[in-house]
Input
Amino acid sequence: MLKTFKKGGVHPPENKLSAHQPVQTALLPKTATILLSQHMGAPAKALVAKGDAVKTGQLIAKGEGFLTGNVHSSVTGKVTKIDEVQDASGYKRQAVFVEAGEEEWMPGIITDNTLDKTIRFEGPEIISKITDAGIVGLGGATFPSHVKLTLPRGKKAEFLIVNGVECEPYLTADHALMLEKGEEILVGIQLLKKALNVSQAHIGIENNKPDAVAHMKKLAASYEGIAVHALIVKYPQGGEKQLIKAITGREVPSGGLPVDVGCVVFNVGTVFSVYEAVQKNKPLVERVVTITGVQVKKPLNLRVRIGTSVASLIEQAGGLPEHTGKIIMGGPMMGKALGSAEVPVVKGTSGILLLPDAVSERSPIQPCIRCAKCVSVCPMGLEPYLLMPLSQQKNYDRLEAEHIMDCIECGSCSYTCPASRPLLDYIRLGKASVGKIIRTRKKP
Amino acid sequence: MSKLLIVSPSPHISSDQTTSKLMYGVVVSLIPAFAVTIYMFGIGALIVTAISIVSCVLAEALIQRYILKSEVTIRDGSAVVTGLLLAFNVPANLPWWMVVLGALFAIGIAKMTYGGLGNNLFNPALAGRVFLLISFPVQMTSWPLPIASRLQYLDAATGATPLSIVKEAVRNGEKIPDIMQQVPDHMQLFLGQMGGSLGEVSALALLLGFGWMLYRKIITWHIPVVIILSIAAFTGILWLADPLKNASPLFHILTGGVMLGAIYMATDLVTSPMTRTGMIVYAVGIGIITVVIRVFGAYPEGVSFAILIMNAVVPLINRYIKPKRFGEEVKHG
Output
């Protein structure tokens, strides 16, 4: 029996145009624009200055504090400036600009691709290598991995959950990675299990990737304590709460963390980076990115250096189609529409999706006909039709009472609304305000 | 990159469902019932339906254009659905000007005064029907004979509905088994060969429409199924208690407006609850009130009153019956 999560969910057209495209290596950027804020939390502090020479994999910015991450140079060359650049959200952020020359990796980094299955380190060493390598959640949320591995006092993990769901339409980066680096991912899982001190890992993969399910199942058979689960296709199964529910039947309590039900969740891409960091001393300087769209000439999966511009990736996929209305970083359900193609790839960039003009603009907003579709698709059991007007009225007490903070912003409500109402837009606004109120309340 | 890109928050795609597709989906699902009513009531059904739809659409357009001075939104199809359902809820020999009045009430009073589509508390078509029933009780309860009078409109020969025959006979002290000899058999009731409002007679046709709406995901099964089950349960208890005075559950379900009410009138998206549990509470309420009116009340039929009463309770249901939140109940192990 295939598993899935119970409550809500939608079935957008899958459009996995680049499925079964092998991962190709992208051209090195001429100038890498490396944002100091690649992760959730405080920006890293630059360790280099204009004119410095840096090597590939060299630490160029250090995360200071707890919720932060290290940043490394993704190319070899000269720092030309440290300046502001527009990020995916449209904000100006500090970035290190490195003009690339001939490639030279930092000493100590192993760049060959031979599989290394020998586990040489204890838990704390593994965590410290992960911290050093600047690894963050590659599924998109970019939560620093070492923070996830440092469990709150008194909490104990029971299962490592590995997210190979890739429920966003169009994206195939994780799919390709599982097919090509399955064994490395399994070694990464063993490393994470050791770091978390758990004996059982569960990999969840949606059943629209039967080759990945079969491949991972076959490989996992020779590892102890790794189960592979094929899941019924339903968005947003890649949401960690939905994935935990699908695999274990447990529900993360409202306002709680996965570890409250004994689970810690990592994306397969992150797990692969953990393997490289621990076994190969390789910091997170590249990742797999899907470049796709119905009008894209060659939809493909590319191994891309962090800091490469989106425009150059589009060139490598056959160029910008004539009638492109939107460039999205990420998938169509949760990705960010870019204001410019000059935005650099960051650690959380899972895909670049080009949408044609015809589907880029939203339909006109019509009156709510109270069809209750938004209520039935909400995976968190919320009532978007109600949250939207409450947010417009700034009724923050009532919004909090109606559990607005539980919203995972998956977009199922706006997606399904027959009246094209911007439900999630207003829920986000309400959530931001309610979040602020809750934080000031917590401060004494 | 000379062209400006479009920037908006996610999600960047939307389902292909639209308000007008939902509305026209309802219209399509009514085709079987419409075919049956043309067969049973002929020319009258055709005239009343046409007048009702045209009046509803015109009423909405004129009110929006000349009174509200707002955008005319008749293309969303909601006025067509109201017109169709209003026609389905009146006898096929109702004078045309009464149909126009009912349409004016449905659209003008029950829908537009509340703020138009999505804001009305009561089902507009049912509000129109009840307005007509109270204003013109004689014309609203004279039922053309099925098949026999399908070539007449205003001069159609009329008879009683099975429900009013039973009500009258029980009041006169007759026993149910004897009364059942005077009404059409269950198969005729199921197919729709009986007196009644023009769209309510054929359970079979309405069930086909129900199947279509489920298939197209326009409504869910909860409201119709629970209404029918609760009417069956309640009338079943009464029937078992005294089978000589009370008609069987099957008779109750197949007659009057139960099928039309449960499948089309109670499921009106705007005026029904937003959660599954809320829908069930609402549907049980409709079932109970319907039977109370039919068995103990003055009217032989109570579906439309029951639905309107429960429409009034919907805001309360939405306020207090909430979906089960994810993570509300902590499960471990």
